[in-house]
Design a protein that fits this description.
globular; about 45% strand; single chain; four-stranded antiparallel beta sheet; mainly beta
Amino acid sequence: MRRFFLTAAAVACCAVGGLSSARAASFDILYSFCPQSGCIDGNLPAGGLLKSASGKLYGMTIDGGAQNVGTVFALTDNAGAWSFETIYTFCSKANCADGADPRNALIEDTKGNLYGVTAHGGTANSGTVFRLSHKRGKWVQSVLYSFCPQQSGCPDGNYPLTRLTYRGAAAGTPYDGKTPMFGATMLGGSAGDGAVFELKPTRRGARWIESVAYSFCGEGDCANGSSPNGLVADTAGNLFGTAGKGGDANAGTVVELTPAHAKWTATRLYSFCSLTDCKDGNGPSGPLLIDEQGELIGTAAAGGLKNSGTIFTLAPGEAGYVQSTVYSFCIDRRCNDGAAPLDGVTTDASGALVGFASAGGTNGHGGTAFRFDGTLGLLHQFCEITTCPDGRIPRGLPVFDAAGSIFGVTAGGGAHYQGEVFRITP
């Protein structure tokens, strides 16, 4: 990964909402959801996309499908013509034992199996971790773990929201399908304020065993945060997470979990709203990006100079991590570059940061796609009203093809007002 370069002048500009002129980019809709009665194909694809090793795009919808509790879909590029397929519809089993309300993006192992989470369904309607395997020409779904199995208070966690991660995920290492996966639940755990869990297969992979690596708010005052909403593992197996609440000002934290002798040690790296008026950000959201120097890069949904969210960095130092706000978003008329970046950022081939803001922009505050390389440029501005044909409320992390095109989803708008999959070609 190439680290984006920030000059002192650029940081000073962007910290007060500096905005470069928009880059020339083309925008295409690859698929608009719900073209038929009942939304059998799904609707509201709010979790982002997976660009598979085969070149397919995989994603999930939180609603729609035969039981109206979500689907998994695939898009295939056939010489420029994209074909859509629903590969799984949730609640296909009695009492939604297979899960319901899938969230976030999928991950893929080296054999092409897909893994994800559902916020509800399972044996206790508290969410699941599932796998989809392609066998004999069709997709077969299996539940690897159902949360809260007859446990009062759900100490194992419930309502999993974050994308699954694994050792080396931050560096782009493919998942081997055998080593432990990690995730976070918004609720449950020993104090009911969320948990980080580990899920590992038995020796022959017949069963998967869940254990809680860390329960938020377990220390009593929620100093390390609560309501985790992002998690990523580095090459050493350390976990870095964002918590949207808790900390000194109840404005969220960044926490590192380090494995040691079959136990995990939690270290708070930063507590947000440490500056007056939360100029350092409020409510960190989405997974963190880890660059080659070990610097953490993320987004906060609110706070900053204009209370519209931030891009921040946490740089390791001798006395701990040092936080810097490298960009403050703004929704004033003079700086309508977007607001509420909910899902973090990633890098393009040049090392610039690319992401989505779920609100703001000049077209009625429907959100923006942005690129940041010391100044922020807008790649696309979405529209706020429900009937916007180009969609509204972009969500998830951008994914790229070999030519540098950017793919994403919107949680609304499109030809049928139920969301879309789009492509931006810079």
